[in-house]
């Protein structure tokens, strides 16, 4: 069990080092990121905790991740922001939920809220390209749902996208 945690820490460290290496040539201001992860004691003992990977390259990017696991399974989120003034928020409850966000450009906004049970997965994937796109995703229920949204807003006139399932 300890080997698995060490491997995970090494992978996260490599991701951090790679991100830092890629951003050395950019002028970067302090970005705002907040991660909250909760799981019960048995989840931590069986390596079923929550995992988040956040990579920010640019200025004034913001992320908020709140994940709540169960005793059976944790959640996973990844956020990649390349550009300036991007905002990403993820709120996952239950277990086995997966969210992936990629924001390339500036002034993108995405908000993913997922719930679900512990044995079935809710999966959301968002890719935003260009400037000024807005995507809201909300899921609830038992699981086995997958939503994938790609929005290209190169003219800065993209209409907001809202997806809700219950």
TrEMBL record:
Q: Which UniProt keywords apply?
A: Signal
* UniProt GO cellular component terms: pilus
InterPro entries cross-referenced by the UniProt entry? Curlin_rpt
One of the GO biological process terms: cell adhesion
The signal peptide here is: 1-30
Q: Does the keyword Signal apply?
A: yes
The UniProt entry's sequence similarity note says: Belongs to the CsgA/CsgB family.
State the protein's name.
Answer: Curlin-associated protein
Which organism does this record belong to?
Halomonas campaniensis
């Amino acid at each position: 069990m300890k080997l698995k945690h060490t491997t995970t820490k090494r992978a996260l460290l490599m991701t951090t080092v790679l991100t830092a290496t890629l951003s050395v040539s950019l002028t970067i201001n302090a970005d705002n990121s907040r991660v909250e992860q909760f799981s019960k004691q048995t989840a931590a003992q069986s390596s079923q905790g929550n995992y988040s990977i956040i990579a920010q390259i640019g200025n004034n990017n913001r992320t908020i991740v709140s994940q709540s696991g169960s005793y059976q399974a944790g959640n996973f989120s990844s956020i990649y922001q390349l550009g300036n003034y991007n905002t990403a928020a993820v709120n996952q409850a239950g277990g086995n939920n997966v969210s992936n966000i990629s924001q390339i450009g500036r002034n993108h906004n995405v908000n993913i809220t997922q719930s679900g049970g512990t044995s079935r997965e809710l999966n959301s994937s968002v890719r935003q390209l260009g400037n000024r796109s807005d995507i809201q995703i909300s899921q609830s229920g038992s699981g086995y749902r997958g939503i994938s949204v790609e929005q290209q807003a190169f003219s800065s006139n993209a209409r907001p996208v809202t997806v809700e399932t219950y």
